[in-house]
Design goal:
There is one protein chain. The protein has about 190 residues and is an alpha/beta fold. The protein has two domains: about 50 residues, no CATH class; about 130 residues, 3-Layer(aba) Sandwich (Glutaredoxin). It has eight helices and five strands. Strands 3-2-1-4-5 form a five-stranded mixed β-sheet. α4 runs parallel beside α6. It is elongated, with a radius of gyration of 22 Å.
Amino acid sequence: MSFQTSALVLAWVAIVLLALGLAGLLRQVQLLSRGRVGGADGPAATTAHTPRDLVGFRLPRQGPLAGLVDPVAHRTVLAFVSPGCPSCTQTLERLAATPDVAAGSVAVVAVSTGSCTPAETALAGTGRCVPRGRGLLEQLRVPATPYLVAVDADGTLVAAVLPDEDTDVPGWVRHSRGSLSVTEEPHRE
């Protein structure tokens, strides 16, 4: 076999391998864009949740999720955060300054993926924190941190938002009093 023939065969083999790799990559992108991720818990568990999927979900009455709802307050805001996340700290500080939270009609429960020290500092005594709550984030399929979920006294998720620096957190807390809603576009100040 000549050098040119060997190079041509090797080039075709490389092209076929690259095509197979690209096909596999495109398949993964297609699955992710449809909101499906791998899992062995059945179809319901493989669908990634969006805020719209979470609204209306009722937390179980037993287990770790049941302990998130404050039994005294009319509503509870669950703030899913991560230590070392500046936007998480800002969101918790804005929650702590919200009049409904300060008055005690809305309880704040921060669910941290790690330590609670940054969350407790940001909340300044206006809420409590659940440390190492990554399992809770995964159970609710929280897409990112910070993430806010309003829960009524019965444990039903009534509103959800992925806040950014322009989100009017006090306005969102006031808005979440009513019926089931989802904030796709954040409230602007």
